[in-house]
Amino acid sequence: MGKEWGWMSLQRHKSATPQSCTQDLRQKRIRLFIITFLKSLSPGEGFRVRLISYLRNVIKVTCAIIVNAGGLVLVAQRSETMSLPLKWEFPGGKIEPGETAEACLIREIKEELHVDVEIVSSLPPNTHKYPNVTIQLIPFVCRITSAQVLLKEHRDFKWLPKDELLALDWAEADVPIVKHYIET
Description:
By secondary structure, the protein is of the alpha+beta class. The protein is built from 5 helices and 8 strands, in the order H-H-H-E-E-E-E-H-E-E-E-E-H. It is globular and about 55 Å long.
């Protein structure tokens, strides 16, 4: 494989580490295998093109709708240095190769908010296309089981009643999830 697969070529990214580059390499190899396999199928050119494009660009991300005993919902504001700066979101993160959505959510919430959560239920995912990436946001309703919220990446957080959630300036991918949660 060419240099584009190696760790050295990914060093230009601030967050690149040998471990994350190995994971990126695995993801790229899996995607390449799937794309090669799909090219060998013949259900029609339009189908193949759309499916290959989807597989190359969709990032699966989990998010937690954390509800406390009083029914208030935790929302987090992205920092100025994150993509979509100062937008509000349900906290969570990218699913790593070989990781389940549930395991990802528990890991990400521990990393981002320094709390343990228990998953209560799941909601339908939302796929949203941003200009440079497509996100499949996979939401779970959760409750905190230990510790207090300590922000590590976000700028701020709030506990809000359900009926006040839409008043915030949300990241676009979260909006359909907020609306679905309010309706249920």
